[in-house]
Write a structure and sequence with these properties.
723 residues, alpha+beta, Pdz3 Domain, seven-stranded mixed beta sheet, five-stranded antiparallel beta sheet, 24 helices, 24 strands, 15% strand
């Protein structure tokens, strides 16, 4: 049974090998042995070693016994919660069984609800019981009915509904099924095509999306890739993907029920398909391997076919052909068209022009989830939980979240008028706000304090800090340096760096962050197809003290996150212990080039990166092609979290992140805040990381203040017992 407990899953290679404590010339003590086993996830072995040392007088053993007792209690409580969740989900499924007696006519929304429960129950089942569960008659009926609904949706041109009501769920239920994954991707692709062709989306005409796109942009992209891409290009795959996208394009034109900017007659669509088939046959029958010349010829021929059949604007055909062709290269290589450059740069820099709020529409109402400090919205008196009823007089009732963001943001110095309703007072008013440059701070503590500042201490009694880094921007290194310096002035003795859900960012920023923790050595090596490798090297100047360090990672820790985690874990540096789950597995370096011209940009992969021991970080894209799952960085201490645990952790994290006005009326609209104990109780990965840091501190000879009750994780705050 998968109980989510910590186990040793590190691979026996330099890139992912678990740390072992450096003993140098010192004799190995029982404490060294106990902690060494903890640092490889072997808590059972650590407990045995601790119990076998009953005659030893090392005072540190009592502290290690305390830490191990709290770890055991954590696992017991997780198992209790798991069994309780299973019982609750089974009851829920029984209720749905009653409601869905006429399952053959069940509505899609009710089926979605039932499928969600099925997913949760299957995830909580033992490995042996997962298959049996899916064969239960009611579960099979739910799946079969969902498939039927999806097929009906697809026939009606409702591709996103077909995806949402069936294929999305099936990719979760049967993760290894390539047929489900491929079909889900196909439906999502058609939905994306449809969105790109809609006549009017968020007040923007479809033609605006294609404005400025020229044929030479794609041709220059091909030239850049042939010269600099990290591997030899799959030209045959590029042609295949592009032609298939053209087929899907015609299907959307034929079957979409949306108001599209362009349409085509049935005879035009038939001729388009016939000529595409002929082109594909010619490419397959031509001798020798495919080359860049073949992709260029394919591109030119598709443009000619469009001129003779569909008569779509050439910009539309260029965009879809190019995007599909580049998707065959890898998931991280794409052309950024002129209209999208601003949003792309915003995602990279985490800087944009707006008013400084985080918004959501989870309840159907556009609501401010949190403020950003020292921004126009904060200065104008807006507050968390305020509802945005209208933007520039346009109601937000039917406005999706992406459209709302587009309308609220805008160039610095321009104005936007919001109609605000405050639920706590029922007051409604208009406020005109001047947009300004907004920089999202990617460094966060475990929660905001009442003054809006972050609380960086996760274990105040033992002065253990916590920093969550959400992305790697140009300022992440200096900002981290400043926060560490302040915590060290306050007595920092150990640190948890949380890189979970961090998708990456600038490689140089990753190197700067890693450099803060090591004095010398290679941090990362980038190896291109041509030319010499480049290196990021650690510098002694600015290195922070060698206090115990634990890094949290999960399957959403990617790119720059993997560079930092992998480098600091690597045996050559041996600076940090990793806790959590295997990382995403990007393993590659991208650059952004304006070579394509016309205000477009090309983002493409130029190198693979290697850790200090010269082992590459295995690329997920390549490993999946080989049917393998050993990509990315493996944690030293693996802690899996089930869906229920993840949802609880993220919910508490969101509430602890909220920034409200200083004069926020807590009597009428109390701010949700979780105690430290509740936060740790909701997050077994974080709790395990804390226990690992404490273990490393004990091994280093530091005396800790540890709770005697194993049900309590930390002391020094009035937060009570967890039970």
């Amino acid at each position: 049974m998968d109980d989510g407990s910590a186990v040793n899953t590190a691979e026996p290679n330099a890139a992912t090998a678990p740390q072992t404590p450096s003993v140098e010339s010192q004799p190995v003590t029982t404490v060294d042995t106990v902690v060494g086993r903890i640092l490889t996830g072997d808590f059972a072995g650590a407990e045995e070693a601790c119990k076998s040392a009953t005659e030893e007088t090392d005072s540190r053993l009592a502290q290690m016994a305390n830490i191990l007792a709290r770890y055991d209690d954590l696992q017991k409580r997780r198992e209790e919660k798991k069994q309780l969740t299973i019982a609750e989900q089974q009851k829920d499924l029984e209720k749905k069984r009653e409601k869905l007696k006429q399952i053959d006519t069940a509505e899609p929304n009710k089926l979605d609800d039932a499928m969600a429960t099925v997913i949760r129950l299957r995830e909580l089942a033992s490995p042996a019981g997962k298959g049996d569960f899916l064969r239960e008659p009611f579960v099979k009926k739910v799946i079969d009915r969902a498939r039927q609904v999806a097929q009906e949706d697809e026939k009606k041109g409702k591709w996103i509904d077909a995806y949402a009501h069936y294929y999305y769920w099936m990719t979760l239920l049967d993760e290894g099924n390539k047929e489900y994954k491929d079909y889900a991707d196909r439906l999502a692709e058609m939905a994306s095509i449809e969105l790109s062709l809609k006549k009017n989306d968020c007040g923007r005409m479809a033609i605006e999306r294609y404005k400025g796109i020229e044929p030479f942009m794609f041709m220059r992209a091909l030239q850049a890739l042939e010269a600099n891409y990290v591997n030899e290009l799959d030209y045959a795959g590029m042609c295949e993907k592009a032609i298939e996208r053209c087929r899907l394009l015609s299907r959307v034109l034929a079957d979409s029920k949306e108001e599209l900017a362009w349409r085509a007659e049935p005879n035009q669509l038939t001729e388009w398909a016939t000529r595409l088939d002929k082109l594909e046959s010619e490419l397959k029958e031509s001798p020798g391997p495919r080359t860049l010349r073949d992709v260029a010829r394919c591109f030119d021929e598709v443009m000619n076919i469009n001129e003779a059949t569909l008569h779509l604007p050439q910009e539309v055909v260029i965009a879809h052909f190019a995007e599909a062709a580049l998707s065959a290269v890898d998931p991280f290589t794409d052309l950024v068209w002129p209209w999208n450059v601003r949003d792309f740069e915003k995602s990279m820099t985490q800087q944009f022009s707006g008013i400084g709020v985080e918004i959501s529409k989870e309840t159907g109402v556009l609501k401010i989830g949190s403020l950003l400090p020292d921004t126009p919205a904060y200065r104008e008196g807006l507050d968390a939980d305020d509802e945005i009823i209208a933007v520039n007089g346009e109601s937000t009732e039917k406005m999706d979240i992406f459209c709302a963001v587009e309308k609220i943001t805008g160039p610095k110095g321009t104005k936007v008028t919001l109609t605000i309703r405050r639920p706590s007072t029922a007051k409604t008013w208009d406020v005109t706000i001047v947009r300004d440059k907004i920089a999202v701070q990617p460094l966060r503590g475990w929660r905001r304090k009442t003054d809006g500042q972050w609380d960086w201490m996760i274990d105040p009694a033992n002065q253990i800090g916590y920093v969550r880094l959400t992305t790697f921007t140009e300022t992440s290194g200096p900002d981290m340096d400043a926060i560490l310096t302040q915590m060290e002035k306050d007595g920092l003795r150990g640190l948890i760096l949380d890189l979970r859900y961090n998708p990456g960012g600038y490689l140089s920023s990753a190197a700067e962050v890693a450099d803060l923790f090591v004095r010398e050595g290679v941090i990362v090596k980038s190896s291109p197809r041509h030319g010499f490798p480049t290196y990021e090297i650690a510098h002694a100047k600015g290195t922070h003290p060698d206090y115990p360090l634990v890094i949290l990672i999960n399957e959403s820790s990617a790119s720059a996150s993997e560079i930092v985690a992998g480098a600091l874990q690597d045996p050559q540096l041996n600076r940090a212990t990793l806790v959590g789950q295997r990382s995403y597995g990007k393993g590659s370096v991208q650059v952004v080039s304006a070579y394509t011209g016309g205000e477009s940009q090309l983002k493409y992969t130029v190198a693979y990166y290697h850790l200090p021991s010269d082992q590459p970080v295995k690329n997920r894209y390549q490993m999946e092609k080989l049917g393998r799952k050993d990509w990315g960085i493996a944690p030293d201490v693996e802690v899996k979290m089930n869906i229920t645990e993840l949802r609880g952790m993220l919910d508490l994290q969101r509430t602890n992140d909220v920034l409200v006005q200083a004069d926020h009326d807590e009597t009428k609209a109390p701010t949700k805040r979780s105690t430290l104990q509740q936060t740790l109780d909701s997050d077994p990965q974080l709790t395990t990381a804390l226990l690992v840091v404490q273990s490393k501190m004990v091994r280093a000879g530091q005396t800790l203040q540890l709770p005697q009750d194993p049900n309590t994780i930390v002391i020094g705050m009035a937060i009570g017992n967890k039970k």
